[in-house]
Amino acid sequence: AQTVTQSQPEMSVQEAETVTLSCTYDTSESDYYLFWYKQPPSRQMILVIRQEAYKQQNATENRFSVNFQKAAKSFSLKISDSQLGDAAMYFCAYRNSNTGNQFYFGTGTSLTVIP
Amino acid sequence: DADVTQTPRNRITKTGKRIMLECSQTKGHDRMYWYRQDPGLGLRLIYYSFDVKDINKGEISDGYSVSRQAQAKFSLSLESAIPNQTALYFCASSGGAVQTQYFGPGTRLLVL
To answer: Residue B99: which of A4, A101, A105 has the nearest Cβ?
Structure first.
């Protein structure tokens, strides 16, 4: 079974600084997708970034980038120039491309941005 | 306008009552999902549907049922609500090659 582990329940960062959120996953598959979702206090789940496992290049979306290490099964999220609006719960998610559409979510990391 | 909507946004009910949570999407996606979120546990899949005639149980389907009334509509029912079903419920839909899931705003359910 696939599992997704976020080992940091809480993180904090100073405004304008950089923070990295960790995520590891367990799978025996070679073809899959990885995602980071943000859940602000409004509780809406918002897609931040996604990575296809077959792509070697790390995905980037503005201030958000990932460090995808396939062999290590690691998928960390880096937030640069942190802003107050980045404060939220962040969830890492995994989807296997071969066995249906089920997403597996980590337990989340709560990010606080300090002014 | 939101692409995935859920009604109601908040609901309080009593043990033993039947309730229905509704979800609609305007993204034209074939696939829809229901999750529940509990503190410290992330999101867990209750049911998912690949199309109107294809419904599948997820990780925690006991105590729940679903109905896919149309491509755009997927409802979740609690036949006889119990307090440990108090949670935040999310509907999602997905499409395209990557099948990225897009979520509704959530329904906060309290079962007394």
So the answer is: A101
